[in-house]
Specification:
Rossmann fold, Arc Repressor Mutant, subunit A, 3 domains, five-stranded parallel β-sheet, 388 residues, 18 helices, six-stranded mixed β-sheet
Amino acid sequence: MIIHRSLENVAKQAVEKMPVLTITGPRQSGKTTFLKRVFKDYTYVNLEDPEMRLYASTDSKGFLEKFHSKVIFDEVQNVPELFSYIQVLSDQGKEKGQFILSGSNNFLLNEKISQTLAGRTRILTLLPFSIQELSGTVYESSQFEKYINTGFFPRIYHDQLNHTEWIADYIQTYIERDVRKQKNVGDLSRFQQFLKLCAGNIGQMINFSRFGNELGISYHTAQIWLSLLEASFIVFRLPPYYTNFKKRIIKSSKLYFYDTGIASYLLGIRETADIDSHFAKGALFENLIISEIYKHKVCKGGRPEFYFWRDSTGNEIDCIYQEGTELFTIEIKSGKTIHTEFFKGLEYFSKLNTPSGLRPFLIYGGNDIQKRQNFSIAGWNRLNEVFK
């Protein structure tokens, strides 16, 4: 069954305006399938193939004489020599949609793009499936717990794989293929512990000193390892909301996983039924909703800019983002019955800020949509109401 990705229209528009389109995202997020299906008239070249990679790296000019237009270079970060030649060709030909580049190592891609292709490429990110993309398909679930446990990687769904086994292999392969290439990771067993520690701190403020103390590594090493996980699309940070933009940069962020299936596995969850009694249920549900908001923003081709808010006395809003003159404040609760205390943070924040343009939402573990005097309420599977 073909599942259409929300990024399709944005990608098609990009090749009509820019000489180079770059699609990045985690391994196994469906980039190859997406590119082959959406851009059927393009030649596909996989630079994971050793022979093709050798050809491209030892004779880049000859390689690009053969593949010089309407071509997809997958895992292009494996052949950094190509970027300068692509720059020259795109400048000479001034052809729209001449090259499509794809890769799963954000560090290497960003480095090469900033050096050679700045201003010549549109960068889009393809993440694993979203709840919205699975809606109306045979894979749709009525339980958010199932989504949390299974995650959203396409191959699990398309091939009907055992998600626990697949995710275990994914984590091991990721460590072997990506982390071992990084000179700053010498102790892989300790790095695996670091991964589990990250999962245990979902929705919490990042404290590198505490991470270091618990694992016996330095503050600096903890920073580097988290950067590696970010570059490989395993985790992302949610910065704090301040009207003072400098504070948004220097203050501690919260930690979330792009895919809740990976987080669940690292927390020892193997069955969907285990989530109800697990200590991290609320954090995992919060992660699910935050990552869905992130995917929605990314699929529109934008750069996600959203935040959390917390004051010195513990009042908190889980997610804040701005669109035009409207400020969306979102509180996230896994409970399936609405309680008055769910609105405490939203009410407090509303009193501190001008009501004009303020859009308070509660997203909860139930299914209803309600409009109350001061708040909008949406069930976890009705996120489209928030996105509207």
